Amino acid sequence: MVIFKIRILYYYLLLRWKRKRLVTAQQIKQHQIRLFRKHQKQLTNAPFYKQLSQQKAAYEDYPIINKALFMKEFNQINTLNIDCDKAIKVAVDAEVSRDFSPQINNITVGLSSGTSGNKGVFLVSPKERARWVAGILDRVIGLKLKKRKVAFFLRANSRLYESVNSILLAFTFFDLMNPFEENLKLLEKEQADILVAPPSVLLAIAKEKQNKQINILPTKVISVAEVLEPQDKLYLEQVFKQTIHQVYQCTEGFLAATCEKGVLHFNEDFILIEKKYIDKEKRRFHPIITDLLRTTQPVIRYELDDIIIEKKQCACGSPFMAIEQIEGRSDDILKFINKEGKLVQVYADFVRRSIIMGDDAITFYKVVQKSLTKIECYLEVDNNNNVSLVRGKVKQALQKMLNKFNISAIEIEFTEAYKLKKGEKLKRISNECQKSV
Ligand SMILES: [Zn+2]
Is 277 helix (H, G, I), strand (E, B) or coil? Predict the structure, then answer.
């Protein structure tokens, strides 16, 4: 454990020192290419990459992979010859017993909480864990000499998080599978300095705080695991009276964190990002990520399903690529047939804006496309407002937006109730009919 902590400190200092030396885009590029060359030597231990790494191929020559391929080739991609079925079994057993420390020979095994149905498994070595902790300390939590308490809401505990416990940080884990009221009571008792939770949970806590049902005063609030929508960010900032920080991370790595301005930046000092544009304007892209440090289960040119809108410049001055918005996954693009009979894609961003512009009184919404001709909406509005009036405005705004895409005759229906299932990820805008398209 002592060695582990020394390692964290070492990586922490290394990260900070290196980051400060990267000032221009060109320096970042050179740094990434240097790291990739070094990284490539380790890839000879992965049968999937053996040939390319021996040839010292450029990173652009490596195949682009996705989650399905990453899992299918699990045995060939990991460098320790760990069998996929065994890893899944170890991780599932741990999840069922809620014993959160599954390991195979010192390698942490985790399950990804992907919504797409196909189970993902990831492997992390102690070194990689230490690096991850160092990254989180540097980019998210910040190192202070005063002891701080951290309240952490998550679906499954993991050694990954436990390892951050130290003389400077005391973690309390809140299992999202426990009743919310119970968690709330404990949260108030704890009086943590730092609150970490998915946005759906932060929103629920903020509501309780606003209604004076709970008295907490965290000095830092961090949103994780789900996409934080701009209007939710605004609401949380009002209630907690501070910038809300975000972590963009998935099983494929720690990808981005917010700067002091509250804007997400990719960790380009160890993640190489290629952009696969999906629109003509070159505004939206799927990131293709290469983790330049992870060797147990290398992540090389892995295409994510997330849709990113890039922010061209951030006031903080960081040279790392900034993110305007994470738009969710490509499954969540709404699809309709326009008047000319063509299939049209409507990005979540358009739906979101129409709803927000629809009326100020909306405090919560959810939109689900049910069929090619039907959308279902759920709205919550401020107490003093007339619900049917707000619904009318939203309907109008959505129709107006769809008309711009030459789409008409879409049925917009409102539902009375909506409840997030326990442990379910909050998705504001989703498409449940795309499989039939
Ligand atoms: Zn910034």
Answer: strand
